[in-house]
Every structure is written in structure tokens, then in C-alpha cells.
Design brief:
Largest sheet: none
Number of strands: 0
Number of helices: 4
Mean pLDDT: 90
Low-confidence stretches: none
Helix content: over 70%
Oligomer: single chain
Order of helices and strands: HHHH
Strand content: under 5%
């Protein structure tokens, strides 16, 4: 008896997974940078970075395994990414923060599109 196969990922899903993984990596790198800086302001940014890092990783994982909850996860992921963008924008002179904000903004846009696509 033939094993059922998963439907291949659409290009939109693959692009969203890639954007999430890029944002995840960028958040991890930025957390490392923040820890070296120290200070209370960075603690608030760290929380946003941690939430975004975990959420983007989980969102990508759920899409790759075609979880029926992917749409809801994409919505939540977009919100976490938006919060991270806002936190990073508090330090506009820091190039690492700006790269992180860009990656998270892209992931947010892709996740919103996926959530609206009704996976």
C-alpha cells in the first residue's frame, strides 16, 4: 500500500519559512550583541528579541511539517516580529539592530501573507 505523501510546499510557504529562519538567526546574533552592551534599555530589547527568535523558529517548524495551526502561528509570529522591529528601532544608530529590524519586518510581512492565505 502506498504511503501518503505530503503536498509540496508552495513558493510562498518556502519564502515565509526562509524569512522566519533569517529573522530567527538575526535575533540570535542581535541578542549576543545586546548582552555585550548591557544596560536596562537592552533588557527590554532582549525580551522582544527572545520572543521573536523563538516564535519565528516555531513558525517555520510548523509550516515545514504542515501543521493545521500554521495560520494561527503565522499571525502570532507576525505580531512578535512587529514588536521586535519596534524594539530594535529604539537604537537607530546600531547597524546590528537595523539589520535585525529589517529581517523581522520581512518575516512579519511574509507571515501576514501566509496567515491570510488560509494554509
Amino acid at each position: 500500500m502506498a504511503q501518503p505523501t505530503m503536498t509540496p510546499m508552495t513558493q510562498q510557504m518556502q519564502d515565509c519559512v526562509n524569512a522566519c529562519m533569517n529573522a530567527h538567526s538575526m535575533c540570535e546574533e542581535t541578542m549576543s550583541s545586546c548582552m555585550q552592551m548591557g544596560g536596562q534599555a537592552q533588557m527590554q530589547i532582549m525580551r522582544a528579541l527572545m520572543d521573536c527568535s523563538e516564535t519565528t523558529r516555531m513558525c517555520a517548524d510548523m509550516m515545514m511539517r504542515r501543521s493545521p495551526m500554521s495560520g494561527e502561528m503565522c499571525t502570532m509570529c507576525a505580531m512578535a516580529c512587529d514588536m521586535c522591529v519596534e524594539a530594535c528601532m529604539r537604537m537607530p544608530d546600531d547597524p546590528q539592530m537595523m539589520r535585525c529590524a529589517d529581517a523581522c519586518r520581512r518575516a512579519s510581512e511574509m507571515c501576514r501573507a501566509m496567515a491570510g492565505a488560509g494554509m
